[in-house]
Amino acid sequence: MKSPAFARLPEVVLLTDLDPIPPHEAVEMFHDAMVDEHAKSTRESNKHRLQAFVQFCDEEGIENLNEVTGRDLYKYRIWRREGQGDGRDPIKTVTLKGQLATLRRFLQFAADIDAVPQGFYEKLTLPTMTNGEDVSETTLDPERAIEILDYLEKARPSTRDHIILALLWETGARTGAIRGLDLEDVDLEGDHPRFSGPALQFVHRPETDTPLKNREAGTRWNRISEKTARYIEDYIDFHRDDVTDEYGREPLLTTSNGRPAGNTFRTTLYRITRPCWRGEDCPHDRDIDDCEATHIDHASKCPSARSPHDVRSGRVTYYRREDVPRRVVKDRLNASTDILDRHYDRRSDREQAEQRSDFLPDI
Questions:
Q1: 21-25, 92-96, 297-301, 308-312: lowest mean pLDDT where?
Q2: Which CATH class is domain 23-123?
Q3: Where does the Core-binding (CB) domain lie (predicted)?
Q4: DSSP state string for 119-173
């Protein structure tokens, strides 16, 4: 009788059904596959995130995606956490989580095209976030937003800078929605039967490069004030470039070349939210003459500079301070109450407690 030690071991099944493919080609296929389901900005963001993975594979000599192992994924996670791949300092946990989540989605796609084994993506674990760690704390304080708008109304009325901030602040909309507005989407006289005053309509138009984040569900009308309507009218009459975009549409906001790029809104906000831009003293004890953030290309390096996302969070905070019903805020900003609470409401704990007390009976 043979000893159990010499018993026949189970036959190892080799994975022979994988098709060789270079990592960069698989990333291109993934990018192409997203066209039908995702906005261009999302596709470009995912492609940018995966470039670091392609670079990692090049440095490790991995020429075939079939050869990537669980150990490689762990090494990549550490490599990326330390800021490798773009020459930066170590990245924040929330940034790392987002980049690894994109890689997991890519590996799921790679399994569908027989580039890696099914379920291989599960070998890439995501970092655990502590409470609130995945939430940005920056915002444009409502008082500051109103101060900047007041300055623009006096110093640069009806310019594109003014209208960008006015629309972002008054509607609380995302930049993609503002960018996608056409002249025909704006009713400055209040002729629409549903409204008694001026309004504008956000429309999902993915086929001509102006999708809304929530697609058709994001299509909606928003009221605007009479004052903002008059400024928009003056912008159209005196400052708007009379151009069409590459699809023959007439954008509301324009550059000399057509519809502004998405980055135009971000750089505009960085520039006009710097205190020194409005002639104020620097609150950061910097020498204005030597500060690199005074240069238009480096405005984002000013600690006081804020992004369009910060305007949106500031608007939510303003609504909440004024006790605007959540349902109204949710519908106007086209976001769930959970997202509004978690990512946009910047009231302090004390403010929230005091507002709650207004609705509670005295004990």
A1: 92-96
A2: mainly alpha
A3: 21-111
A4: TGGGGSPPPPPPTTTTS------HHHHHHHHHHHHHHSTTSHHHHHHHHHHHH--
